[in-house]
Amino acid sequence: MTTLFISPGACSLASHVAVRELALPIQVERVALRTADSPIHAINPLGRVPALQLDDGTVLTENSAILPYLADLVPGTPLFAPAGSVERAQIQGWLGYLAAEVHAASFRPLNRPERYSADTGAHDGIRAQARVQLYRAFEHIERHLENRTWLVGERFTLADAYLGVFSLWLGRIGGEFEQLTAVARLRQAFLGRAAVREALGVEGLA
């Protein structure tokens, strides 16, 4: 059986939500992160989630690849758009932006400054600059959502499944991020979806 490996509260929640939105017969397995004995290392050498292991043993990694793959298993799903369409490209564009500008460029140095300097004295500065970068990244999203509920096509898509996870992370930071009212509206709409509540329940985060 195809298995999706996730860790509670990690970015893998996006793919977990997609599995439930699409009602796919995929097993979801929780694994620990950043522990040497975690089974994720036998699946993904990078030790990261999400990781999707197919029936034939093939492993797919990264939300930006797994989310489109899952949606394409259900042709016509409103979570994605037809090949060659502008909407499909827009959704993929947001997936790329969220992976690069929000996750890798902002949340990662904010949460793990040791990856950017071995000097512990530099960590506070790294976190401070990462916070500035994170706010800038979300300002762009905030402007886009000013008169919208969702990122593309006025419906919940793969892009919103990914952004919804980061909106939850943002809710724990507070401070200036509380000014992002459009993002807060998306967070509440995200939490209102049955698939999101089910995924959070399975991850022990309801």
From TrEMBL:
InterPro entries: Glutathione-S-Trfase_C-like (IPR010987), Glutathione-S-Trfase_C_sf (IPR036282), Glutathione_S-Trfase (IPR040079), Glutathione_S-Trfase_N (IPR004045), GST_C (IPR004046), Thioredoxin-like_sf (IPR036249). One of its GO terms (molecular function) is transferase activity. Residues 84-206 form the GST C-terminal domain. CDD domains: GST_C_Beta, GST_N_Beta. The keyword Transferase applies. It holds the Pfam family GST_N_2. Keywords: Transferase. The keyword Transferase applies. Residues 1-78 form the GST N-terminal domain. This is Glutathione S-transferase GstA. The gene is gstA.
